[in-house]
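Hello Y.,

Per our agreement to keep a running log of every chain we model this quarter, I'm adding this entry. I've kept the format consistent with earlier entries: sequence first, then predicted structure.
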Amino acid sequence: MSAELPILYQSDDLVAINKPHGLLVHRSPIASDASEFAVQLLRDQLGQRVYPVHRLDRKTGGVLLFALTESMNALMQQQFMDGLVHKTYLAIVRGYTDDQQTIDYPLRRDDGSGPGQGTLQEAVTHLRTLQRTEVPIPFGKHATSRYSLVELTPETGRMHQLRKHMAHILHPIIGDRPHGCNKQNKLFLAHFDMNTMLLHAQKLRFTPPGATEPVVVTAPLQDEFRRMIDSLRFSVYGLQ
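Predicted structure for the entry above:
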């Protein structure tokens, strides 16, 4: 990656970037094909050690927050664990979603092999539909294809929560594998030459330890997400 990571917010103790889709946060044994990682790239860019205080899937783009000291890392991780950090995502999904919906569906822990693996964990996501569209692309027995642009606000932070919850309500996120719809993913590859997962971490709202005023960090949409909004004829304006 030749370009520097876009910095959205920086203080003495914290820095937030707009993580590109497809970039791993750090090294992982399940992604041996990757040679670049957000932790190393940002460390080299800033010339100092950085600590990711939360995680985003490799395929998800958007706001990713790092601490610049071990003590701030511990404090911010605790805020995430305590549900004090408000997260907002945007996604393009299959079909027409309800205007608003709360998805309260426990998920099995599948983020490792230690104690608790496989246990059910509470998981809650709030959905708000921003726009629906119908495009003249045949799909199955239908002459057209329908999609929704949604805002997703997770109350909990389970691994792949948004992806699993959208699949559970039969509105999978476009480009998601393995939780999404393979036929839709193939359609997007064939019609649009697009294989990015259309999930974007748009906003983080938190109050830094020791501060009295909240900080809101917003990540502009990245190129492929913007291209799909245009290609699918969404008419939502005001999105960054």
